[in-house]
Amino acid sequence: MWWVRVFKTRAQATAACRDGRIKIGEIEAKPSREVCSDDVVTVTDGLLVRTLVVRGVPKARVGAKVVPEFCEDRTPPEAFERVKETQVQQVLARERGAGRPTKRDRRLLDDVFGDSFSP
Fold it and tell me: Which residue ranges form the domains of the chain, and what is each CATH number?
């Protein structure tokens, strides 16, 4: 998973395997599990469940432009939208009586909506 840039680090990929968030077919993958061509890999990352099909196995970590040669992402676009909406709702959620947003809260809102956001 680290080779085709699903995770930023090998440690994150290993932790995901150990936590049972990566499945090859219907079986939970161990960190040392080798994948073959045409294997279907399911990666659960928070609310997002990604489905990847292995097209080939690289010998080393590959660049971002080369990833589609080795891995096909079959995750529906609706899943990405659902996660994005949930993130926006979490940023906007404020407890009643919490007062005005702090400078940190305001910066988070600007990151999500751009500098033109005004509540």
Answer: 1-75 (3.10.290.10), 76-119 (no CATH)
Dump pLDDT digits (tens) for 70-95: 889 898 989 888 888 887 777 677 77
pTM of this structure: 0.66
Helix, strand, coil in percent for the chain, rounding step 5: 35, 20, 50
- Work out whether the CA dihedral 65, 61, 21, 109 comes out positive or negative: negative
What is residue 77's three-state secondary structure? helix
Contacts of 69 (CB under 8 A, 6+ apart): 55, 56, 62
Which tokens sit at 91? Answer: 């940023």
* Distance separating alpha carbons of residues 48 and 44, to the nearest angstrom: 6
Q: Which of 51, 81, 56, 80 has its CA nearest to residue 68? A: 56
